[in-house]
Amino acid sequence: MLYLLDANVLITAHNNYYPINRVPEFWDWLLHQAEQGRACMPLEIFEEVRDGTGDAEKDLLYGWLQRAEVRRALVLDEAIAPEDVQRVVDDGYAPDLNDVELERVGRDPFLIAYALRAAQERCVVSNETSSPNRQRANRKVPDVCRALGTSSCNTFALLRTLDFTTGWRR
Question: What pLDDT digit, counting tens, does each position of 67-117 carry?
């Protein structure tokens, strides 16, 4: 299974649970998972996180993402066709989203479109919580994934599945 990471996975991990300067084992483990072909991010999602503050001195996550080995391992080496992204927007959100709604949806359709390329072999990892009653641009990633036939999980399910521990190197 290839786990495709949403931007919120890295941002939330760094800000709330595993700050890079306090739990570097998590970030080393994540890089290892990427190098082993188990976790990655589409370029569109990587750029969303990387373009945060743009200051490696103040933003440790930005600094980590600037490392060549991180980019090389973490960024999915594929391109997606615009019609695949449009299908996610049309079938997962609504075919008539306006510009404000498209901005609210952000780059999530890219993430889901990459997962749909091999829906049985890929899983979207997002910290968004399912909210099935939401409509249009307010739909959450897990609900769009479910509607389109690909799997999703949250960060903690990923950690359990890939067996993260701070002593993972032993």
Answer: 999 999 999 999 999 999 999 999 999 999 999 999 999 999 999 999 999
* 146 part of a folded domain: yes
The per-residue pLDDT of the chain, averaged, comes to 95
Q: Judge whether 1 lies within some domain.
A: no
88 & 147 share domain: yes
39-40 sheet: strands from edge to edge: 39-40, 2-5, 122-125, 151-153
Containing domain of residue 103, as a range? 82-153
Residue 2 in contact with residue 119, Cβ under 8 Å? no
Establish if 169 belongs to a structural domain: no
Q: DSSP string spanning 72-99?
A: HHHB------HHHHHHHIIIII-TT--H
Q: Is residue 130 part of a domain?
A: yes
